[in-house]
Amino acid sequence: MKTKHANWLVMVALTVIVLAAAPAASAQSGGDPVGTAVLFDVGMGARALGMGGAFVAVADDANAIYYNPAGLALIEGHNATSMYSTLLGAGNYLGVGYAQKNVGAAVFGLMSTAPGTDEYGNPTGEFGYREGALAGGYAHAFGPFALGGAIKLYAQDAEVNRGFGATGDIGALITMPYLDGFKVGAVARNLLGTVKFQSGHEDKFDPWYVLGLSLRPLRGLTVAADYDVTHSTGRVGAEYQIIDAFAARAGATMNADKQYGFTAGAGFALGSFRVDYAYQFHAELPDSHWLSLGFSF
Q1: CA angle 277, 149, 162 (to 5 degrees)
Q2: Cα distances (angstroms) measured from residue 15 to each of 170, 188, 211, 232
Q3: Residues 57, 76: Cα–Cα separation, whole Å
Q4: 265 vs 90, 143, 259, 287, CA distance in Å?
Q5: In 34, 144, 166, 208, which residue has its Cα 20 to 30 A from 130's Cα atom?
């Protein structure tokens, strides 16, 4: 019993170190919210996006590999998901993910095509832009503490110049043993690596750090909050499982400039199949619609 207690204390100490190191590391990051890989800033899964993207301490489905790979250690059974959106009316964003206990994988991409013009405004054809990523992750639980990581292979194609690179995420998640549904999470994303372009230019991935917590104050209700330390952005969200076949969701975000964003969503289940939808409100750009199809077995 003493050994188990000591191991638990070590895991808690490691989490405290992660949480304490995040603000210091973010101070050196430059605070740029859009870096080399825009793809890694968007989000994944209509369920998570319907909750405002506050998912670091929830991370209990195939989207865990994107939001917090430590959540892979807590997944029961097999979970597959897919996602599609016409992002901001300017491009197509899609992804497919799979997870089972301890392991997960995902592939997602961003594709956009825009008309090109010359200096006089005459059409010259279409300009295409592509980003894609393949991710694989592993996690393990040590009592109430889970630790996980993900490796991400990234590619960018702007027609005139292509780039390739690799980076990784590390996440931690603590499930409080005496508080039902209360979890604390932390994730460090894009820690290392660069994108190397055909032109010879190199861009570093922008690391960023997010803290999160979630709880279930009522039966069927999950409330979550994330704080993006690097970009000083807060996210809150809620999911209410009204009946087994239907869940309602809502969320909000606020950045350092006190700009707000709101989301709403719903989930529908029929046996092992699930359909999730999310709607994102934007102040100036076109609103976004997200659709996910999932299957559990």
Answers
A1: 75
A2: 11, 12, 11, 21
A3: 16
A4: 21, 33, 21, 13
A5: 208
pLDDT in tens, 12-23: 333 333 333 333
Q: Output the CA torsion 35→36→42→45 (10° steps).
A: -140
| Strand pairing class (273-281; 260-270) | antiparallel
Helix, strand or coil for residue 238?
strand
CATH architecture, domain 2-296: Beta Barrel (2.40)
Domain boundaries, the chain: 2-296
DSSP 223: E
Distance of CA 257 to the CA centre of its chain: 22
* CB of 71 closer than 8 Å to CB of 171: yes
Q: Which residues contact 254 (CB under 8 A, 6 or more apart)?
A: 233, 234, 260, 261
Q: What is the DSSP letter of 70?
A: G
Helix (H, G, I), strand (E, B) or coil at 18: helix
Task: Please list, residue by residue across 90-107, b when 16 or more beta carbons sit within 10 angstroms of its beta carbon and e when fewer do.
Answer: ebebebbbbbebbbbebe
Cα separation, 191 vs 167, whole angstroms: 6
Q: What digits encode the pLDDT tens for the residues 246-281? A: 999 999 999 888 888 899 999 999 989 999 999 988
Q: How far apart are CA 248 and CA 1, in angstroms?
A: 42
Check pLDDT > 60 for residue 1: no
Please, are residues 104 and 11 in contact by the beta-carbon 8 Å criterion? Answer: no
- Residue 5, SS3 per DSSP: helix
74 close to 146: Cβ distance less than 8 angstroms? yes
Report how far residue 230's alpha carbon sits from residue 209's, in angstroms, rounded to the nearest whole number. 6
How far is residue 241 from each of residues 146, 172, 212, 237, 268, measured CA to CA in Å? 25, 26, 21, 14, 10
